[in-house]
Amino acid sequence: MKNIQKLGLSLFFLALLIFNVILCLGTFQLTEERLEEIAKDEHLEVLRKELRPMFGVKYTNSFAFVYNFNNYLDGYNDLQKDEQNWDRVIWDDYTLAAARVSSDGFVANNRLVLLFMTLFMGSFGALIYILPLYRGEPKGIKHNGLMLSSNKRRGIIGITVGIYLILIYILLYWYPAYIVNWVLITDPISRKISGGPASQWFMYGVIYTLAILVMGIRMFRKYWGNRYQMLRTASVMFFQLSFAFLLPEILMLFNQPYHNFINIWPLDYTFFFDYRIDDMLSSGAIGMLMLISGILLIVIGVPLMTYFYGKRWYCSWVCGCGGLAETAGDPYRHLSDKSVKSWKIERWMVHSVLVFAVVMTAFTIVNYFTGYEWLGHSTDMLHEWYGFLIGAAFAGVVGVGFYPFMGNRVWCRYGCPLAAYLGIVQRFKSRFRITTNGGQCISCGNCSTYCEMGIDVRWYAQRGQNIVRASCVGCGVCSSVCPRGVLKLENGNEEGRISDMPIIIGNKSVTIKNQ
């Protein structure tokens, strides 16, 4: 088995090496005909004039091509801005599209081969390594060196992984043209599913989904025998593959708006943007279904489901962000900060993001129904700032890139506005709680160590006090790792859910309220 695992690791790292090397491969040559394929009619003449020096020039890598393309176009745009000719500025970013149509040579001619040699071979190698894991071990989770690994205790490997993920997200959000070759190799999948070429977001969706599926199998191996963990892992894998990845692409195949049915406002902060509303209203019955179902989920579905099952129904069973955190991020769950200070910061930050999202959405809706006569286009600035700070920098760069530094639920704890909304309902009006039996607690600390949301579970368990926290996502791992069965996830009557526990400190009786 050890040899099989070594083979799996070798295949994975070989695929990773090829994946990175292909960024520097291929040739790029822009022609007038290729430019016409991507340019809007109102921009075509300007682009022809400004980019003419590039026509016929063969670039040996995407970096040189992108640099020259931006250099010529930025020169034109800067001149228009200096002269206050705002209507002549080309705000559309053509860089990635130009790199796509200009690509030829090795990468463009071997997309399917490179797809198999990178993403598919990497996934296969990872599976070969994962499948023998935990073989022969007794059921349940043990302290089998998890905290000692350099990858999982902020060692040099973990730091390297974190930096690599951060760089990928920076390129994905702000410099996608530099990863055009990664986009190109996913073209065969995109054309099969949606009938069109791949974008950087489709490429990201493929990698994201593969990560959840492959690491989901690791979760099956790790939690084998625990029915709850097996079911919720299967659930996040199913929802990511079907509702978050395949269904939106299939909708585009039938000329319908792209819509992720499990991405709920305010996590889906663009849901009430004018272009989304117009797309849904102009798309017939399916568009109306998207709009009505989205609103019903926000107003009725979310609070109702959270009342009966807590926020776990979404955060641990459906959400794509939670799905990646629970599968690919599981090895880093013990790195979450359990201090009271981090808890205070968490509450301020996550609820501030929720307020930001609500205010921005309110302005957007008012703007839409007043025909932009009251607020004008002032909400565009809010959209840009929210998209940059929250949608990209926080949810992407920090949310995933900081797994090896701050645990796997950084985004869910500190930034997700939907998690904040769900948490408020769960804290004050829900049947969900984690019950504890303090008489059986041996204070081993497994529960607190493995809590990805930074909750000091042991503190509650020692006192036999129900855990009713807004941040708890009900993953159930604290219960799974408890050697005495002290913790239990329940959906009971609200009565007795929140209790005040008197604690004797010295000669004083202090009432500790469940937070």
Automatic annotation (TrEMBL):
Gene3D superfamilies: 3.30.70.20
Keyword Thylakoid: no
Tagged with keyword DNA repair: no
Pfam families with a match to the protein in the record: Fer4_5 (PF12801), Fer4_9 (PF13187)
Alphabetical keyword list: 4Fe-4S, Electron transport, Iron, Iron-sulfur, Membrane, Metal-binding, Transmembrane, Transmembrane helix, Transport
Residues passing through the membrane, by range: 112-134, 155-175, 201-221, 233-254, 285-309, 348-370, 385-405
Ranges where the 4Fe-4S ferredoxin-type domain occurs: 432-460, 463-492
MF annotations from Gene Ontology: 4 iron, 4 sulfur cluster binding; metal ion binding
GO cellular component: plasma membrane
InterPro entries reported in the protein's UniProt record: 4Fe4S_Fe-S-bd, 4Fe4S_Fe_S_CS, Electron_Trans/Redox
UniProt-recorded name of the protein: FeS-binding protein
